[in-house]
Write a sequence for this structure.
């Protein structure tokens, strides 16, 4: 038995916020079939919450899970997501969906009483790149990390969710889908050839993070 | 090229455009103007030349954040109009997609 003075600190004593990637859960949102993470679309009709439906765009979609967790040591945090995309593309975020709505629409997750929004965050992109380098990987030429933090509804300021709001949203576990769209930085009349996208998930407080790859065609057994 | 009439909300404009250019504005299109014009909830760039020629194309911006970012990267380049101002343009040449990237006037 050890005294508090001599107690060895383990990783379980550190603040933790765990997120695990999954295959997408909700087929049909934005006309994406099941088990499809990457898909290129030409301009099409308006779909609520779908950014860039009027431009040539490439969907980037994954599922994720916030497993049941104590969130001990966390007072508030912002969520981070970073995507490795081609330099001639930009990425914009949609809300997080927790179900399929009418037609091709999704039903948005609300935390703290509001839809989850994202704002571009170059500092977060840098964190992801440093951690990517730390595991011996390099961003290949022609690609860059585009980073995002959760934001207020104007998408101009980072927003941190407090612990109670997170506990309320996660409960005994939360499974949801996240959608993004890559578009040409200068809109041109050309389809985006689909390519694999590396994703980083993390947060503003803990050291926990995860990298995973979204393949253009998902192999059996993925995730 | 199609000549159209559109309306929307002006959220920003370029300060001091080049000679021959009267105005470069960033417009949030609220209503649907397809197939003749821009899509609902799109953002376009309108360029008005001093000779009265008006042209517009899509840009991939999603709102004020992009203006914030451009203003940070290029101080004094943009004037941010907040709250936005309702505007309309007539006889606008609508070219939704540019053929190749071009520098701003």
């Amino acid at each position: 038995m050890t005294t508090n003075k001599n107690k060895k600190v383990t990783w379980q004593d550190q603040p933790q916020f765990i997120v695990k990637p999954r295959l997408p859960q909700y087929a049909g949102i934005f006309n994406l079939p099941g088990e499809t993470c990457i898909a290129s679309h030409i301009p099409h009709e308006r779909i609520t919450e779908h950014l860039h439906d009027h431009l040539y765009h490439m969907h980037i979609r994954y599922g994720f899970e916030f497993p049941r967790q104590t969130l001990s040591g966390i007072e508030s945090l912002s969520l981070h997501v970073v995507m490795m995309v081609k330099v001639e593309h930009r990425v914009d975020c949609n809300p997080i969906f927790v179900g399929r709505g009418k037609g091709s629409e999704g039903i948005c997750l609300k935390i703290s009483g509001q839809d989850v929004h994202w704002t571009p965050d170059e500092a977060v992109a840098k964190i992801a790149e440093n951690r990517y380098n730390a595991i011996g990987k390099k961003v290949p030429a022609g690609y860059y990390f585009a980073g995002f933090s959760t934001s207020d509804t104007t998408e101009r300021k980072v927003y941190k969710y407090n612990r109670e709001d997170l506990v309320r949203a996660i409960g005994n576990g939360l499974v949801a889908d996240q959608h993004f769209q890559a578009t040409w930085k200068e809109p041109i009349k050309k389809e985006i050839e689909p390519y694999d996208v590396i994703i980083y998930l993390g947060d503003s407080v803990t050291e926990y993070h995860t990298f995973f790859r979204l393949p253009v065609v998902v192999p059996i057994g993925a995730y | 090229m199609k000549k159209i009439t559109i309306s929307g909300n002006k959220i920003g404009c370029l300060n001091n455009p080049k000679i021959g250019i009267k105005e470069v504005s960033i417009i949030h299109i609220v209503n649907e103007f397809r197939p003749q014009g821009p899509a609902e909830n799109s953002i376009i760039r309108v360029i008005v030349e001093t000779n009265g020629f008006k042209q517009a194309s899509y840009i991939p911006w999603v709102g004020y954040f992009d203006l914030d970012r451009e203003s940070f990267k290029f101080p004094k380049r943009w004037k941010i109009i907040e709250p936005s101002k309702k505007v309309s343009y007539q006889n606008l040449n609508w070219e939704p997609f540019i053929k190749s990237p071009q520098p701003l006037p």
